[in-house]
Amino acid sequence: MVLGVAVPQFDAHVDDELSANVTAYLFSGGPEAARTVLSVIAGSLITVTSLTFSLTVVTLQLASSQFSPRLLRTFTRDRLVHVSLGLLLGTFTYAVTVLRTVRASLSDHEAFVPQLAVTGTYLLALVSVMTLVLFLAHLARQIRVEWMLREVHADATVTMGRVLTDAPGPGTTAPIAPHAPPEAVPLCATASGFFTSLDESTLLTAAIKAGAVVQIDRCPGDSLIAGTPIAHTWPFTAAGPMTDTDRNTLQTCIGVAVDIGFERTAAQDIAFGLRQIVDVTIKALSPGVNDPTTAVHGLGHISALLCTAARKDLGPRLLRDHDDQIRVVLRRPTFTELLELAIAQPRRYGKADPHVLARIAMLLREVAWVAVTPEQHHAIADQIERLAAAISRQDFDDIEHRRLHDQIKDVRRALIGRWPSTTTS
Question: Which InterPro entries does the protein's record reference (predicted)?
């Protein structure tokens, strides 16, 4: 709109001073021709914009019903969609604004055709057409499940790299996190919703000022209910019980430092990406969709994310003061919890498909080869036995049963190869 007002005014000052070499490339028609061009461009663009909005809504509906409603964030934040809709609406607004400045020759004023402004409208229309073609090609790629899984996988990997550190090397002793004593005071959530992120510096500063230790008992991604405990605090020294002032200060800080929203985000939630891919996997296994191939592809992405998580330090995050004393303990999902999230529902809903069960077995074998801690080894061993039990209960033919049990044996051998002390039945 600003350009639609400013460019015609600029035209009025410079049109008579432009050389013939420049005007040869500018719009040279009269007022009626200019009105026609601007009207056609404006009318066409508003029609194309309506079509673009419709296609976007259809894509969102397809993603929600066919894959998972939690994938809508991937589409709504797509930069090309934003640019395409903005350019189409901006060109329409520019053309309509320029149209009001075109006037014919009358007794009280002479004709005026803003040559630069009309030429700019024409150029913007060409760019809009090319953008529409790119948008349609992009949309066709967006609705492919492979593209969506790749995007979620990439986001989850970035989140893990940002939030988690590498696992300590062999022989390194991990610091022991303090546990809340019986006299610890609970701190409650100030609102209901999802735990989306935490301001660590604010919470650490408040804990130091209050002379306390704070332990956050919930992880980003958890559902919180207002008035229920999400943390505990206790005095840093044994000088005496915590005062009401210190407790109230920390409770106020919890309300400021803990960000609560009505949907999960990938800001600090390392399990959110897994949750999205698991949703796509189990949706593909539903009778209404019945697409086990997509489920197998999803399990491949799940395996890659679990292998990434296995190489990270999933222990509690410890925030220290200037004297290197632990003042804040932040809970994070354990590897056992992530493995349960990744496998439990696909195993339950895909137990009738031998290909899905075979991919779950391969997933466990892949994760077994990168497991680095006893906790991970025990979690994998437990999932192996649960998978073997699920396979035994299915009514497969002898060849399928034998093939699946052979794969279970391969997983056990891989686990024993990495952990010789492992004993599985």
Answer: DUF2254_membrane
